[in-house]
Amino acid sequence: MKSIAFIFFSFFLFAAGFSQKITYTQPESEDVRTLDFDIIGKINNNFLVYKNIRNKYAISVYDNNMKLKERVDLDFMPDRALNVDFVAYPEFAYLIFQYQKKSILYCKAVKIDGDAKILREPFEVDTTYISFFADNKIYSSVSSEDKSKIMIYKIQKKNDKFNFTTLLFDNNLQLLHKSRIETSYEDRKDVFSDFLVDNNGSFVFTKSTKSSARDYLEAVELLVKTPQSDSFHSTAITLDDRYLDEIKLKVDNVNNNYVINSLYYPKKRANVEGLFTAVYSSKGDSFISQNFAELGDSVRSIAKSDGGLRYALNNFFIKDIVLKKDGGFLMAAEDYSTQSRGNPWNRYNYLYGSPYYNNSYYLYSPSYYGYYGRSPFYNNRSQVRYYYDNILVMNFDNTGRLVWTNVVRKSQFDDNSDNYLSYNTIISDGQLHFIFNELERRNQLINDQSISPDGKVTRYPPLRSLDRGYEFMPRYGRQVSSY
Q1: How does 449-480 read in b/e, with b if 16+ C-beta sit within 10 Å?
Q2: Cα–Cα distance, 232 to 221 (Å, whole number)
Q3: Contacts of 91 (CB under 8 A, 6+ apart)
Q4: Mode of pairing for the β-strands spanning 56-62 and 46-53
């Protein structure tokens, strides 16, 4: 049985260049391989990590040197919490959880400080009566970028309709507005994006339609509920007979915009042709721009190291969108594929099969698998080899026009688990750093490559002074401060 140690990356900028330091925690005896965890953040100079071990809940409190100060058992938690979310502030955090007792679903919250001590006893946020066969995972929460607004929402399906209940709170968890809205929903054809809330309290997401369960998106609309409204304002996106892939939605609070990105196809069952970008003004209630940027052979040739150019982008998936003050953005897409016996790689299964497609809306929720997409020790019984290769980085201006393109090169694979693959990003000193494992002479080394505002890629020396016996999972990390 392996133990888990949490690590803290410190980045120090000197005149001579960029250096790194890694500080480890000591594994706790209770931390088994099936541990489910969430990095809450840095609160009052302590690092808080939530842990769930076989429905026993605790928060480990670490100091700046990653020394364990205290492990606080969450005795107020029910025997089986259905979902747990966190909203962290510099001095405190809210823990929002839901559970079922008989036919009643409860959504409650508790306020804790930097030592994981209770500042406000658990209090009821909402309750719902459900039937025996109904979905019991209906509550999710999302906060605005500045944490001034918290949206707790639930969705219940009834007669081909989704019944939304939205509860908008301020940063004191005082209720500002509650709405109940009904919208149509068709199984296997309708797809929701992430649900987001902006700094003003508007609730925003996209709803897309496919002609069949394993098809591309052929119709997309942006849905916005303003803070005091009791309905969704819908605006259709013009696709001009093109088809979209997975939708990535981002809130630009500086420019009061919503940015929509997706890879697109010129026709059904075609190859990826380029990137679609739409920018919606929340003040003007209209789209500022909608642009299809075709990615030509020059981009394809640097994105993929082998294979035909026309297939070069077919295995790329949008992973990160970093907004710029002028309304432009950086987009990072990763080359991802799998290989298994009798089951060839299929993009439709990845996007609209398990775990991304289900009759329940909950799988579309950004909170369903916590912050990490899925439990870090999820195991697949079938023999699967995972491949995570190059990262394509593109810079777009505020009209969606491609300015420059570059590639962070990497080659990763593993069997039966992808926990140690892929990457994480850290923004520091005006550059976007990509942190990932890479195999060198049978040793997994932490690599750091950065990309500058003008598109220059810098590769820093690998972190070689790693203690033996530790394996890193960069994709599950979180940046908790500006450095």
Answers
A1: bbbeeeeeeeeeebbeebeeeeebbbbbbebb
A2: 11
A3: 43, 44, 113, 114
A4: antiparallel
Q: Are 52 and 40 in contact (CB under 8 A)?
A: no
Burial class of residue 413 (count of CB atoms within 10 Å of its CB; 0-12, 13-18, 19+): middle
Q: How many helices (H) and strands (E) does the chain have?
A: 2, 33
Q: How far apart are CA 377 and CA 375, in angstroms?
A: 5
> Sign of dihedral through CA atoms 116, 122, 126, 130?
positive
Q: What pTM was computed for the model?
A: 0.88
The answer to whether the beta carbons of residues 25 and 47 sit under 8 Å apart is no
Collect all residues with Cβ–Cβ distance below 8 Å to 402 and sequence separation of at least 6: 275, 293, 295, 394, 395, 396
Query: Is 183:158 a contact under the CB 8 Å cutoff?
Result: no
Answer for the pair 142, 87: CB distance below 8 angstroms, yes or no.
no
Burial class (CB in 10 A: 0-12, 13-18, 19+), 356: middle
Length of the chain: 483
Tens digit of pLDDT for each residue in 224-235? 999 999 999 999
The answer to whether residues 163 and 182 touch, using CB atoms and an 8 Å cutoff, is yes
Helix (H, G, I), strand (E, B) or coil at 312: coil
Average the pLDDT over 16-29 and give the result.
70
For the cut 70, the answer to whether the pLDDT of residue 293 exceeds it is yes
Peptide bond into 355 cis (omega under 30): yes
The C-alpha angle with vertex 349 and arms to 364 and 246, in degrees rounded to 5, equals: 50
pLDDT at 357 over 60: no
Q: How far is it, in rounded angstroms, from Cα 81 to Cα 194?
A: 22
pLDDT (0 to 100) of residue 207: 95
DSSP type of residue 343 = B
